[in-house]
């Protein structure tokens, strides 16, 4: 038993992160359940509403609280908070102007409605778990008796009816035998008291007894009868309890069953964290090394530049010094002038002439230099200014090393899935990549993550075959240049058809009317021509009949199995019908005289929006839906709404037909989203053929199978 208790304490302590309020980052206190199903402390809701209210009244107050890392504001006065909680609070009181605020848990806006906080349920389950956590955390801290005289004794039980804790003696005194209080419910010592019965916050005298599946919240019978949930689907509380408990238990059992996988992934994450730590430190060391190399280069260049400047400076100073000494010699009793004055004192003519001739030349040069003074060197060092503009720009763009291979992008418009999958992509720098690797895998939510399948591709598109029907597949691609690999592209999710693709062409013999219909040479496209031949039959209009539908069927029939095919209806088409035809009465139908008075000749204006599909004549072999004027018309049904807005859908770019002979049903799909638009039962006891009917201008193009030949054609285009 002790071991069980210890395990319970460990479990409680391990769930602390689930017990933290997203607003105040502390353990929940009286948590309330928001409409988005997240919980938040009662006090935090009030503070958030007050914060929003203050943001309307006082911008300065709003700015003063932006520096706080938490959502909580300094606690407002209790009087102001209490006024928020009172029912029927008014806008002109000290209550918030708005009841809409962003949930701290999911950041989506939640609207509390007219009742505000009073319309929220208190999360008693979460509150109980928090209380158990608090007790486990303080372990040795006892809960004292609330009725004892000081000093109080340690309590042994708590009464849920009295909302108080008692020691043994006080419990006997306040719950004597033979009284009503003796029947009160008591539990072990606790500080968490909650009501026995949840009451409706909108109808305070009514107990909760139902669960609204749309709003995902408990409601009372008045909420269902005339309240906000009157048109919502509800279930009994016991049914909701059973269903949710089964789902939760099943999910928990699944997670527990995957415990070894979770532990393995945790170990893997631990290794990845260590590897990231090592790689991060190594990256820092490499960065420091590169910067140190840059510093060394800069120091070398700095020394070289300074040396050149010093040499030029010394040379110029030497020239100035020489020039200065020469000019100083021109001063009286100094230098050249003083020497000349001494020469003038010579009285011997021969000796004077011998010395004076050279001296006179020097005096003349000094005189000329004095008249046209020019410094011996330049003082400016303009030629020695270091130009670092280009280097500064390069250093400013200094970044991490790039592999030089751009990430390819999958072209969603050209990528498609039919009988096979065609994946196309483009590369910003196509010539830089030597090859590509296309990866794909099936998305299976019930099983473990499946590994990626890899295919090496030289071009920019690839056809992938052998994909399972009715499954989601993820595709991505990366580029290679030598051994350098680009990151993977964004994933593209495609849904495969619900059954194997059935290949056929239009039959040009059975029932084909070449006066009204035009079939191309490949027999995969048919057009209805409302031209001269139609005008020649205009006399039929005089007797109140409209022009007929022109039928065309596929050249291959289906007798068993499950098959899918797709086609496109031209946007300009006035009326096109598509579906299947039974071979039982098909030949009789198409070979009968098709005149205006024949009972088998279908008069159809196309304006009934497919209403004729509700009551099929047993003599008709066709099961069709109506498409036209860029709309898809769902046939009328006695079990669903027949309002036009519920039956008329936008025409899909590509329409699919699923024929299940084993199940006896035909369904019509929006191929782009692989979504079923309409399904009905059909008699498949005989061979079934794809069937189409056109009236007025229109065209139908069969979806072409995706093959390697198809890929080559697409690339050449």
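-> sequence recovered:
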């Amino acid at each position: 038993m002790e071991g069980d208790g210890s395990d319970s304490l460990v479990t409680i302590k391990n769930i602390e992160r689930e017990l933290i309020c997203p607003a105040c980052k502390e353990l929940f206190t009286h948590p309330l359940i928001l409409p988005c199903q997240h919980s938040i402390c009662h006090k935090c809701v009030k503070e958030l509403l007050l914060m929003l209210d203050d943001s309307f009244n006082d911008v300065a107050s709003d700015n003063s609280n932006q520096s706080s890392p938490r959502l909580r504001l300094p606690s407002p006065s209790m009087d102001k908070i209490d006024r928020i909680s009172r029912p029927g609070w008014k806008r002109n009181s000290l209550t918030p102007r708005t009841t809409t605020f962003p949930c701290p848990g999911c950041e989506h806006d939640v609207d509390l409605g007219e009742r505000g906080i009073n319309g929220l349920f208190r999360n008693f389950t979460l509150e109980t778990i928090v209380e158990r956590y608090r007790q486990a955390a303080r372990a040795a801290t006892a809960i004292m008796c609330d009725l004892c005289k000081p000093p109080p004794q340690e309590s042994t039980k708590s009464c849920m009816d009295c909302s108080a804790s008692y020691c043994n003696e006080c419990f006997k005194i306040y719950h004597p035998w033979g009284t009503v209080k003796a029947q009160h419910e008591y539990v072990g010592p606790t500080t968490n008291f909650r009501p026995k019965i949840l009451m409706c916050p909108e109808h305070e005298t009514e107990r909760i007894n139902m669960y609204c599946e749309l709003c995902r919240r408990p409601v009372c019978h008045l909420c269902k009868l005339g309240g906000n949930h009157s048109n919502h689907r509800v279930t009994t509380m016991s049914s909701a309890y059973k269903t949710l408990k089964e789902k939760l238990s099943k999910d928990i059992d699944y997670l527990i069953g995957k415990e070894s996988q979770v532990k393995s992934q945790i170990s893997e994450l631990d290794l990845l964290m260590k590897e990231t730590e090592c790689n991060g430190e190594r990256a820092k060391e490499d960065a420091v090394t590169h910067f140190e190399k840059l510093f060394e280069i800069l120091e070398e260049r700095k020394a070289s530049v300074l040396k050149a400047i010093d040499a030029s400076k010394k040379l110029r100073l030497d020239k100035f010094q020489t020039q200065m000494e020469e000019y100083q010699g021109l001063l009286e009793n100094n230098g050249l002038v003083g020497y000349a004055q001494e020469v003038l004192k010579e009285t011997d003519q021969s000796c004077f002439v011998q010395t004076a001739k050279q001296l006179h030349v020097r005096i003349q040069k000094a005189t000329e230099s004095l008249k046209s003074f020019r410094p011996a060197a330049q003082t400016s060092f303009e030629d020695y200014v270091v130009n670092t503009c280009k280097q500064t720009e390069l250093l400013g763009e200094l970044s991490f090393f790039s592999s030089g291979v751009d990430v390819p992008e999958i072209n969603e418009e050209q990528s498609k899935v039919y009988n096979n999958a065609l994946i196309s992509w483009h590369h910003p720098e196509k010539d830089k990549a030597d090859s590509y690797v296309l990866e794909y895998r099936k998305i299976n939510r019930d099983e473990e993550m499946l590994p990626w399948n890899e295919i090496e591709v030289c071009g920019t598109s690839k056809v992938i075959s052998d994909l399972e029907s009715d499954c989601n597949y993820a595709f991505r691609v990366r580029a290679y240049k030598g051994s350098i690999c680009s990151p993977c592209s964004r994933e593209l999710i495609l849904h495969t058809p619900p059954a194997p693709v059935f290949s056929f062409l239009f039959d040009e013999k059975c029932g084909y009317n070449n006066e009204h219909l035009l079939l191309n040479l490949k027999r995969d496209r048919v057009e209805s021509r409302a031209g001269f031949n139609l005008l020649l039959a205009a006399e039929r209009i005089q007797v109140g009949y409209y022009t007929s539908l022109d039928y065309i069927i596929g050249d291959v029939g289906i007798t068993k199995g499950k098959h899918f095919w797709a086609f496109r209806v031209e946007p300009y088409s006035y009326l096109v019908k598509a579906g299947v035809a039974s071979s039982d009465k098909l030949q009789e139908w198409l070979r009968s005289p098709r005149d205006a008075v024949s009972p088998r000749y279908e008069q159809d204006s196309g304006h009934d929006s497919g209403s004729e599909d509700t009551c099929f004549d047993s003599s008709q072999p066709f099961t069709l839906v109506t498409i036209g004027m860029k709309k898809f018309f769902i046939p009328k049904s006695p079990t669903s709404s027949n309002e036009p807005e519920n039956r008329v859908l936008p025409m899909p770019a590509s329409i699919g037909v699923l024929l299940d002979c084993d199940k006896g049903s035909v369904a019509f799909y929006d191929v782009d989203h692989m979504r079923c638009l309409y399904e009905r039962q059909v008699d498949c006891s005989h061979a079934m053929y794809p069937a189409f009917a056109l009236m007025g201008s229109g065209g139908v193009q069969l979806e072409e199978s995706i093959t390697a030949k198809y890929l080559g054609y697409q690339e050449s285009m």
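The longest strand covers residues 472-481.
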